[in-house]
Design brief:
It contains 8 helices and 11 strands. By secondary structure, the protein is of the alpha/beta class. The chain has one domain: NAD(P)-binding Rossmann-like Domain (Rossmann fold), CATH 3.40.50. The strands form 2 sheets. The chain has a 9-stranded mixed sheet with strand order 3-2-1-4-5-6-10-8-11, sandwiched between helices. Strands 7-9 form a two-stranded parallel ribbon. The longest helix has 21 residues. The two termini are 26 Å apart. This is SDR family oxidoreductase. It comes from Gracilibacillus salinarum. It holds the Pfam family NAD_binding_10.
Length: 219
Protein backbone atom coordinates (compact mmCIF):
# COMPACT_ATOMS: atom_id res chain seq x y z
CA UNK A 1 0.00 0.00 0.00
CA UNK A 2 1.29 3.45 -0.95
CA UNK A 3 2.11 5.57 2.07
CA UNK A 4 1.07 9.22 1.95
CA UNK A 5 3.17 11.39 4.25
CA UNK A 6 1.28 14.38 5.64
CA UNK A 7 2.83 17.48 7.20
CA UNK A 8 0.46 18.65 9.94
CA UNK A 9 1.07 22.35 10.59
CA UNK A 10 -0.17 23.28 14.03
CA UNK A 11 0.13 19.69 15.21
CA UNK A 12 0.12 20.67 18.88
CA UNK A 13 -3.21 22.48 18.52
CA UNK A 14 -6.48 20.88 19.48
CA UNK A 15 -7.43 19.77 15.96
CA UNK A 16 -3.81 18.95 15.16
CA UNK A 17 -3.45 16.49 18.01
CA UNK A 18 -6.60 14.62 16.96
CA UNK A 19 -5.40 14.66 13.35
CA UNK A 20 -1.94 13.23 13.99
CA UNK A 21 -3.48 10.42 16.04
CA UNK A 22 -5.99 9.61 13.30
CA UNK A 23 -3.38 9.73 10.55
CA UNK A 24 -1.17 7.32 12.49
CA UNK A 25 -4.14 4.94 12.74
CA UNK A 26 -4.60 4.91 8.95
CA UNK A 27 -2.75 2.18 7.06
CA UNK A 28 -2.03 4.41 4.06
CA UNK A 29 -1.11 7.64 5.88
CA UNK A 30 1.73 8.77 8.10
CA UNK A 31 2.19 12.09 9.86
CA UNK A 32 5.01 14.55 10.24
CA UNK A 33 4.03 16.83 13.13
CA UNK A 34 5.23 20.43 12.76
CA UNK A 35 5.59 21.97 16.21
CA UNK A 36 7.36 25.06 17.50
CA UNK A 37 8.79 23.60 20.71
CA UNK A 38 10.96 20.50 21.02
CA UNK A 39 9.36 19.86 24.41
CA UNK A 40 6.13 19.00 22.58
CA UNK A 41 7.76 16.23 20.56
CA UNK A 42 7.38 13.29 22.95
CA UNK A 43 3.65 12.70 22.50
CA UNK A 44 3.98 12.63 18.71
CA UNK A 45 7.04 10.42 18.73
CA UNK A 46 5.14 8.01 20.98
CA UNK A 47 2.56 7.72 18.18
CA UNK A 48 5.32 6.89 15.71
CA UNK A 49 5.01 10.24 13.94
CA UNK A 50 7.93 12.20 12.58
CA UNK A 51 8.51 15.62 14.13
CA UNK A 52 9.70 18.91 12.59
CA UNK A 53 10.41 21.78 14.98
CA UNK A 54 9.59 25.00 13.14
CA UNK A 55 7.91 28.21 14.29
CA UNK A 56 5.32 29.60 11.89
CA UNK A 57 6.97 32.98 12.33
CA UNK A 58 10.16 31.53 10.82
CA UNK A 59 10.83 32.09 7.12
CA UNK A 60 9.40 30.22 4.14
CA UNK A 61 12.61 28.21 3.72
CA UNK A 62 12.32 26.76 7.24
CA UNK A 63 8.74 25.65 6.63
CA UNK A 64 9.66 24.30 3.19
CA UNK A 65 12.38 22.17 4.79
CA UNK A 66 9.75 20.69 7.12
CA UNK A 67 7.58 19.91 4.09
CA UNK A 68 10.32 18.24 2.05
CA UNK A 69 9.53 14.64 1.24
CA UNK A 70 5.87 14.87 2.19
CA UNK A 71 2.90 14.32 -0.12
CA UNK A 72 0.39 16.68 1.50
CA UNK A 73 0.27 19.66 3.85
CA UNK A 74 -2.59 20.34 6.26
CA UNK A 75 -2.75 23.79 7.83
CA UNK A 76 -4.53 23.53 11.19
CA UNK A 77 -2.63 26.26 13.01
CA UNK A 78 -4.29 29.24 14.68
CA UNK A 79 -3.23 32.08 16.92
CA UNK A 80 -5.98 31.28 19.43
CA UNK A 81 -8.68 33.47 20.97
CA UNK A 82 -6.48 35.11 23.62
CA UNK A 83 -3.85 36.70 21.38
CA UNK A 84 -3.96 40.13 19.83
CA UNK A 85 -4.48 41.26 16.26
CA UNK A 86 -0.73 41.11 15.68
CA UNK A 87 -0.61 37.33 16.21
CA UNK A 88 -3.74 36.91 14.09
CA UNK A 89 -1.88 38.55 11.23
CA UNK A 90 1.38 36.69 11.83
CA UNK A 91 -0.11 33.19 12.28
CA UNK A 92 -3.56 33.01 10.67
CA UNK A 93 -2.63 35.13 7.65
CA UNK A 94 1.13 35.33 7.14
CA UNK A 95 1.78 31.89 8.62
CA UNK A 96 -0.80 30.37 6.27
CA UNK A 97 0.57 32.21 3.23
CA UNK A 98 4.14 31.20 4.09
CA UNK A 99 3.01 27.58 4.45
CA UNK A 100 1.35 27.70 1.02
CA UNK A 101 4.51 29.15 -0.50
CA UNK A 102 6.61 26.58 1.36
CA UNK A 103 4.50 23.75 -0.07
CA UNK A 104 5.15 25.10 -3.56
CA UNK A 105 8.87 25.43 -2.84
CA UNK A 106 8.99 21.83 -1.55
CA UNK A 107 6.98 20.57 -4.56
CA UNK A 108 4.08 19.39 -2.40
CA UNK A 109 0.95 19.64 -4.53
CA UNK A 110 -1.78 18.62 -2.06
CA UNK A 111 -2.85 21.27 0.47
CA UNK A 112 -5.75 21.22 2.94
CA UNK A 113 -6.65 24.45 4.71
CA UNK A 114 -8.71 24.59 7.89
CA UNK A 115 -10.42 27.92 7.61
CA UNK A 116 -13.25 29.69 9.45
CA UNK A 117 -16.93 28.89 8.92
CA UNK A 118 -17.62 31.87 6.65
CA UNK A 119 -14.74 33.88 5.19
CA UNK A 120 -16.73 35.88 2.67
CA UNK A 121 -16.37 39.64 2.39
CA UNK A 122 -19.87 39.90 3.90
CA UNK A 123 -18.77 37.83 6.90
CA UNK A 124 -15.89 40.21 7.58
CA UNK A 125 -18.25 43.19 7.55
CA UNK A 126 -20.79 41.43 9.78
CA UNK A 127 -18.30 40.03 12.32
CA UNK A 128 -18.08 41.50 15.84
CA UNK A 129 -15.18 43.92 16.22
CA UNK A 130 -13.00 41.48 18.14
CA UNK A 131 -13.57 38.65 15.66
CA UNK A 132 -13.35 40.58 12.39
CA UNK A 133 -9.51 40.53 12.18
CA UNK A 134 -9.57 36.72 12.38
CA UNK A 135 -12.21 36.42 9.66
CA UNK A 136 -10.26 38.87 7.49
CA UNK A 137 -7.04 36.93 8.00
CA UNK A 138 -8.73 33.68 7.03
CA UNK A 139 -10.40 35.37 4.03
CA UNK A 140 -7.10 36.49 2.56
CA UNK A 141 -5.32 33.22 3.38
CA UNK A 142 -8.09 31.35 1.56
CA UNK A 143 -7.84 33.71 -1.40
CA UNK A 144 -4.08 33.20 -1.57
CA UNK A 145 -4.55 29.44 -1.71
CA UNK A 146 -7.29 29.74 -4.33
CA UNK A 147 -4.91 31.77 -6.52
CA UNK A 148 -2.37 28.94 -6.67
CA UNK A 149 -2.26 25.80 -8.78
CA UNK A 150 -2.09 23.57 -5.70
CA UNK A 151 -4.54 20.70 -5.27
CA UNK A 152 -6.41 22.47 -2.50
CA UNK A 153 -9.31 21.62 -0.24
CA UNK A 154 -10.65 24.32 2.09
CA UNK A 155 -12.64 23.10 5.08
CA UNK A 156 -14.89 25.63 6.85
CA UNK A 157 -15.85 24.21 10.27
CA UNK A 158 -18.69 25.47 12.42
CA UNK A 159 -18.15 26.53 16.03
CA UNK A 160 -15.53 24.13 17.34
CA UNK A 161 -16.16 22.16 20.52
CA UNK A 162 -14.27 19.57 22.54
CA UNK A 163 -17.24 17.20 22.58
CA UNK A 164 -16.46 13.61 21.67
CA UNK A 165 -16.62 12.99 17.94
CA UNK A 166 -19.62 11.17 16.52
CA UNK A 167 -18.12 10.40 13.08
CA UNK A 168 -21.23 12.03 11.62
CA UNK A 169 -21.59 15.51 10.14
CA UNK A 170 -23.61 17.77 7.90
CA UNK A 171 -21.33 18.82 5.06
CA UNK A 172 -21.97 20.91 1.94
CA UNK A 173 -20.85 24.07 0.19
CA UNK A 174 -23.31 25.95 2.42
CA UNK A 175 -24.91 24.62 5.61
CA UNK A 176 -26.75 26.11 8.57
CA UNK A 177 -24.37 27.52 11.17
CA UNK A 178 -23.90 25.06 14.07
CA UNK A 179 -21.28 23.47 16.30
CA UNK A 180 -18.92 20.64 15.41
CA UNK A 181 -16.49 18.60 17.53
CA UNK A 182 -12.81 19.13 16.73
CA UNK A 183 -12.41 15.36 16.61
CA UNK A 184 -14.90 15.21 13.73
CA UNK A 185 -13.00 17.91 11.86
CA UNK A 186 -9.87 15.77 12.18
CA UNK A 187 -11.82 12.83 10.78
CA UNK A 188 -13.07 15.04 7.93
CA UNK A 189 -9.49 15.98 7.08
CA UNK A 190 -8.45 12.32 6.95
CA UNK A 191 -11.46 11.50 4.75
CA UNK A 192 -10.51 14.40 2.46
CA UNK A 193 -6.95 13.12 2.17
CA UNK A 194 -8.38 9.75 1.15
CA UNK A 195 -10.92 11.19 -1.32
CA UNK A 196 -9.39 12.62 -4.51
CA UNK A 197 -12.67 14.28 -5.53
CA UNK A 198 -12.22 16.83 -2.72
CA UNK A 199 -9.44 18.50 -4.71
CA UNK A 200 -10.56 21.97 -5.77
CA UNK A 201 -13.46 21.96 -3.31
CA UNK A 202 -14.37 24.11 -0.31
CA UNK A 203 -17.16 23.21 2.07
CA UNK A 204 -18.70 23.94 5.46
CA UNK A 205 -18.97 21.25 8.15
CA UNK A 206 -21.15 21.08 11.26
CA UNK A 207 -22.51 18.27 13.41
CA UNK A 208 -25.06 16.07 11.70
CA UNK A 209 -26.29 12.59 10.88
CA UNK A 210 -24.25 11.56 7.83
CA UNK A 211 -21.22 9.32 8.12
CA UNK A 212 -18.13 11.46 7.53
CA UNK A 213 -16.69 9.28 4.77
CA UNK A 214 -20.03 9.32 2.89
CA UNK A 215 -20.45 13.07 3.42
CA UNK A 216 -16.99 13.79 2.03
CA UNK A 217 -17.51 11.54 -0.99
CA UNK A 218 -20.73 13.39 -1.80
CA UNK A 219 -19.11 16.82 -2.07
Amino acid sequence: MIQVKVLVVGANGQIGKHLVTRIQNEENLEARAMIRDQNQAGDFEALGAEVAVVDLEDDIEAIAKAAEGTDAVVFTAGSGPHTGKDKTIMIDLDGAVKTIEAAKKANVQRFIMISSFDTSREAIQAAPEGFAPYVAAKHYADQWLLSTKLDYTIIHPGKLTNDAGTNQVTLAEKVERNEVPREDIAATIVASLNTPSTVGKRFQVVKGNTDIADAVKSI
